[in-house]
Amino acid sequence: IVAPAAGAVCNAMLQLAALRRLRVLALVRGSERGVWITSTYGHLGTVSAVDISEEDWHSLAASLVDAAPNGEGGADGFVDGCGGQLRAEICRSFLRIRGKVVTFGDIAGAIDEADFGAVAEARLLDVHCEGVQSFCAASDAEAQLQAVIDLMARGKYRPHVWQLVNWRNAAQCLVKQPHW
User: Whole-model pTM?
Assistant: First the structure.
């Protein structure tokens, strides 16, 4: 499971997972994002998108990851840049016991640490908080980066750039942006 799937990091995760033929559930807000993801990656046969702003999103997501109401089954992992109450909700409802959670941000707001901690403990989740610093510190960072560059050179992986900023205006990117 990846969220926010239309964001740059999770979009890269979608592509790389699909190249490895992993089954991926992309969580988005807004049907246009879901349509874009399925039209872009759906031909690979391993990517599904669910709009979490729809009323019935829980049942659709549960069916796509084989999660049962009793807590059995579910996805192997969750890559989360959303945070907020969504993190604990996804882990509680859609991850298998002993699943892996990789967090890299909290764009939807701070999480309830006690709630998430209780879910992670109850479901025996393997939780990792990642970022550029931890990636660069990894012993295989150079090999991972080379593998991605090789995929790009072969035309198999194409990073999406949503906005180009002139260097003269780059400082604007550091200004606190509105919380959507």
Answer: 0.79
**Within 13 Å of residue 76, how many CA atoms lie on the same side as its CB?**
4
The separation between CA 103 and the C-alpha centre of its own chain, rounded to angstroms, equals 8
In this structure, the number of other CB atoms found within 10 A of the CB of residue 24 comes to 27
Half-sphere exposure of 105 (CA within 13 A, CB side): 12
Q: What is the spatial distance between Cα 123 and Cα 132, in angstroms, rounded to a whole number?
A: 27
The pLDDT assigned to 180 comes to 45
Three-state secondary structure of the chain: CEECCCCHHHHHHHHHHHHCCCCEEEEECCHHHHHHHHHHHHHHCCEEEEECCCCCHHHHHHHHCCECCCCCECEEEEEECCCHHHHHHHHHHHEEEEEEEEECCCCCCCCCHHHHHHHHHHCCCEEEECCHHHHHHCCCHHHHHHHHHHHHHCCCCCCCCCCCCCHHHHHHHHCCCCCC
Q: What would the mean pLDDT of 110-131 be, rounded to a whole number?
A: 91
Distance CA 131, CA 136 (A): 9
- pLDDT tens string 19-48: 888 899 999 999 889 998 888 887 877 899
Q: Which two tokens stand for residue 15?
A: 């592509």
